[in-house]
Amino acid sequence: MPELPEVAALAQFLKEHAVGSVVGRVDIAALSVLKTFDPPVTSLQGRDVTDVGRWGKHVGLNCDGTWLITHLSRAGWLRWIDNPNPAPPKPGGKSPLALRVHLFTPDGDTPAFDLTEAGTKKRLAVWVVRDPKEIASIEKLGPDALAVTEIEFAAILKSTSQRIKTALTDQWLLAGIGNAYSDEILHTAKLSPFASSSALTADKVTNLYETMRTVLLDAVARSVGQDAARLKGEKRSGMRVHARTGLPCPVCGDTVREVSFAEKSFQYCATCQTGGKVLADRRMSRLLK
Question: Which residues form the FPG-type domain (predicted)?
Answer without folding.
Answer: 240-274
